[in-house]
Amino acid sequence: MRLKVHLIIFIYWFETLLFAAEAGMPQLDPKYWFSQSFWLILIFLLLYLLISKFFIPKIKDNLDDREKKIKDNLDEAKKLSELAERKNLDYENEISNAKKEVVKIITESKKQLDKNINQKKEQFEKELEKEIKNAEKEILDVKRDSSKSINLIAEEISAKIIEDITGNKLNDSSIKASVAEVSKNKMGKYLW
Known about the structure:
Elements: H1 2-13, H2 15-19, H3 33-166, H4 172-191
């Protein structure tokens, strides 16, 4: 501090030599220094007050608002990211459950289909067996009827042949007995 005071005194002492006030530079003339210092301090004080009271708070508010907005956006993005992850997990769980359900439905459907097929197959086999029995019965009936018809035809033909050969008509009962005996021996193996 003392050094500054000495420096100011020294500068004042040599003012004419140092600043060349007579050379046409009034701002260097010491008699105007006080007014210049006053206005300099006043202007810088006003600038300081304006900047510190008006501009800096507005800038600080803008920066705070921007920082708050960025922080809010980051928080919202984090929440949305967590929500998206939860939704993705829910979606994957739903897909997994749906796949399990599909496998279960397919398995149950296959079992039900196999059961229905077996039931239809058994029913078809029963009906086929019934039809086969009916056909066998009809065949047996036809065989019996045909053997009777064959016997009648054979009796008639035999009676006619014997009558044509011998000229005598034989007894119908003896012809029936002979045809029946031959048909039992010969025809039984073909018809039964």
